[in-house]
Amino acid sequence: MDFSFTEEQLMIQDVARRIAREKIAPSAEHFDRTGEFPLENIRLLGENGLMGIEVPLEYGGAGMDPIAYVLAMIEVAAGDAAHSTIMSVNNSLFCSGILKNGTEAQKQKYVRAIAEGSAIGAFALTEPQSGSDATAMRCRAVRQTDGSFIINGKKSWITSGPVAKYIVLFAMSEPEKGSRGITAFMIDTGRPGFHRGKTEPKLGIRASATCEIEFADYVVQPDEVLGKEGDGFKTAMSVLDTGRIGIASQAVGLARAAYEATLAYVKERKAFGQPIGAFQMTQAKIADMKCKLDAATLLTLRAAWLKGQGQRFTTEASMAKLTASEAAMWIAHQAVQIHAGMGYSKEMPLERYFRDAKITEIYEGTSEIQRLVIARNETGIR
Ligand code: CAA
């Protein structure tokens, strides 16, 4: 077993760390407060290869491995979680599914635009009445005699929905077949029949724009079907396996930022004549924060390593996402507690970490869904 990173992995980590420290972290408070989309920062990430880290060079990406992706995501998330949400959706949810299931023309058109940072992508699975139970979707795709499809329906909670140029959409093409009747489609948001609905006012990751989208007789051409008809649910699930490594990395980055701020604070802040880090109750919190942070990091890297080896990593991705998101929530909570009044104040980023951490336990499969996936795969009982 080798815990060291390659030169290439360290290089992308360094690029991400530099952008996160110089551009993202200093502007995070502004974007959180205003809810503006950080377009310039996202372009900069794209220009530096961070929107298509695992995308091969021939499709405009950085051609690196899943470990490199994890390292870069951690750095960006440590600068600001909302930026890493946008990065994660572009890399994992958008590019990975097209790379795995798309035609050569689809890869050249859609993956290249997102990997080069000239456009933003989104992933539309969730609907107002179907979140965890993804097969309960109502969005319909009706096949026409010429092989095209007409799409009607609504999708909700679409990350980057307000700004996305292209969207990977999942819709029911043969409802009587249940999960085997779902098909994936490529959507161009500039075409007739595509509409954006209300933008969600959110607790955290406020700079990552989220909205409802609606399709009214939107026409998908035969060459815009992604993968085989009826294979959409499996595509969504395998893309989410990859996505969960991204969210685990995001949670690790956010948790690290909260932990590092706390570590510095307990050495400086004095009470009863000594640094608060000298008190055993603080020391216990620091020790538990460090253990949870490292456990989450190692599980995330293991899932990425398995992916890089071409092995199945569904369970490991869920374990990483579950552990990292719960660690991030717990660490951010303790960080606010240790900083006390300063932790609760908007003058420091702790309260933002606390608000941002919560989403990692919800999107790309709630903690309950991760436990279900892990237990089903462990027991073999469905
Ligand atoms: N990879 C490939 N195929 C998979 C798979 C995987 N990881 N998981 C399941 N499948 C296949 C199964 O093998 C099965 O195939 P067959 O039909 O050939 O038997 C098929 O998919 C159906 O599987 P299940 O019977 O297990 O499906 P289910 O209805 O019981 O659902 C679930 C399983 C785990 C609960 C799933 O619905 C799930 O993960 N739900 C959570 C959805 C989710 O994560 N949503 C997040 C929205 S996206 C988001 O948050 C993005 C964002 O904004 C950042």
Give keywords.
alpha+beta; 3 domains; about 15% strand; Butyryl-CoA Dehydrogenase, subunit A, domain 3; 11 helices; Butyryl-CoA Dehydrogenase, subunit A, domain 2; globular; Butyryl-Coa Dehydrogenase, subunit A, domain 1; four-stranded antiparallel sheet; about 375 residues; binds acetoacetyl-coenzyme A
Structure notes:
The protein has eleven helices and ten strands. By secondary structure, the chain is α+β, with helices and mostly antiparallel strands. It folds into three domains: 7-120, Orthogonal Bundle (Butyryl-Coa Dehydrogenase, subunit A, domain 1), CATH 1.10.540.10; 122-230, Butyryl-CoA Dehydrogenase, subunit A, domain 2 (Beta Barrel), CATH 2.40.110; 234-379, Butyryl-CoA Dehydrogenase, subunit A, domain 3. It is globular and about 80 Å long. Bound molecules: acetoacetyl-coenzyme A. The site of acetoacetyl-coenzyme A (CAA) has 25 residues, from helix 4, strand 3, helix 6 and helix 11.
